[in-house]
Amino acid sequence: MSLRPDLRGTVDGLLPELKVLLEQLVAIPSIAFPDYPKENVQRAHDLVADELRKSGVEDLQVLRLPDTAPVIYGRIPAPEGAPTVLLYGHYDVQPSGDESLWNTPPFTATEKDGAIYGRGAADCKANVVAHIGALRAYGGKPPVGITIVIEGQEEYGSAFDDYPAEQPDLFQADALLICDAGNIRAGTPTLVTALRGVADVFVEVRTLAAPVHSGQFGGAAPDALLALMAGLATLHDAKGDVAVQGLRRDKWSGANYTDEEFAEITGMEPGMPLLGSGPIGERIWYGPAITIIGLDAPPVKTAASAVVPYARAYLNVRVHPEQDPAEGQQAVIDHLRKVKPFGIELTVTGGDVGSGFAAGTSGPAYAAMREAMAKAWGADVVDSAMGGSIPLTNAMAQANPGAEVLMLGAEDGKANIHGYNERVLVSELAATALAEAEFFQLFADRMRK
């Protein structure tokens, strides 16, 4: 069955205006972090809300939560007997970082070689634009009911992370399209079926009241930094696999990166080995990871010849999508408390946790989306996962225990989200809008049978 020519032709015809809208959104530095201008976040909100109204979302309102950017909430009633689809995205972005490291200005959308560069171009403004394109493909009257939720503080975190579970009536739908993901590689339509959970762990050690001369006392005086490093070194084995008992790891049967592809995507230095063993998908999606993301110790530039009395590390722990992150966090804490390098006890405490997610793949929405994406991209659909977490996914699922959760989007493995020179391919933007539009009809057809 070929793709309906009216939908493809309509989306192709909409593409110029969708590109203009994306360029307008990228030009707004809608960073919801503290100390950034809140008016920019409001400007992005207003632009998205106006464009949704033009796309047929007449019932549009704002959800205002404490210390949270305004959440766009809208509805299009379902035709008689048709299902309802919830569309999610966010209009806020990460900070740009050092702008001198960008090849183009981060808040000036720049089209080059089939891609649009700029902060938020992929994460997640392209997905917001794709929602708008899918609605406009039907003249604002899709064959399914629509609930649309576009938040403005996803990147920093907010009260909205838990809100859907507290107000489930607002978020009832038969399928949830969490469009804050993307394809494993450009041109390969990908449904994300799992997200790893996350937990923070802090490790510190104090051995002396103050630094002491390393020549006079080094060799016997207990070195806090050395003890910390020795303790942290026990978290992995000689291959680089996590060596903490109680952290789950399973076989991964979905799509995978090749070693060469992964090295290119991550910008590995030539000749640098990968950490761990087994398929890459198993290591980064279906198994644990422990990353040292912060270290309090004397900086090299100002270091004195002294035994260090105090050191601290900040660990980011990623756990299997179906493992309780608090359980994984406790496993790491217990491991480090037992280590006692050189007989020195480490002080280990837990921080924030966020649950992972595993989506069902046997329902009508999943089948309809696989068919829609295969038609839009003209390629077989694969399942993938994300090593990162989307906290809102769990709250949406809790609010809607009977709904299918579909995670997809216009990003791809080389989109550089959160990094310098972020970009979205125009072809991926168009295919995402087309797949979503096709899904509306296919899902409506399946649910009426």
TrEMBL record:
<keyword id="KW-0645">Protease</keyword>
<dbReference type="Pfam" id="PF07687">
    <property type="entry name" value="M20_dimer"/>
</dbReference>
<dbReference type="InterPro" id="IPR011650">
    <property type="entry name" value="Peptidase_M20_dimer"/>
</dbReference>
<dbReference type="InterPro" id="IPR002933">
    <property type="entry name" value="Peptidase_M20"/>
</dbReference>
<dbReference type="InterPro" id="IPR051458">
    <property type="entry name" value="Cyt/Met_Dipeptidase"/>
</dbReference>
<protein>
    <submittedName>
        <fullName>M20/M25/M40 family metallo-hydrolase</fullName>
    </submittedName>
</protein>
<keyword id="KW-0479">Metal-binding</keyword>
<dbReference type="GO" id="GO:0008233">
    <property type="term" value="F:peptidase activity"/>
</dbReference>
<dbReference type="Pfam" id="PF01546">
    <property type="entry name" value="Peptidase_M20"/>
</dbReference>
<dbReference type="GO" id="GO:0046872">
    <property type="term" value="F:metal ion binding"/>
</dbReference>
<feature type="domain" description="Peptidase M20 dimerisation">
    <location>
        <begin position="196"/>
        <end position="341"/>
    </location>
</feature>
<dbReference type="GO" id="GO:0006508">
    <property type="term" value="P:proteolysis"/>
</dbReference>
<keyword id="KW-0378">Hydrolase</keyword>
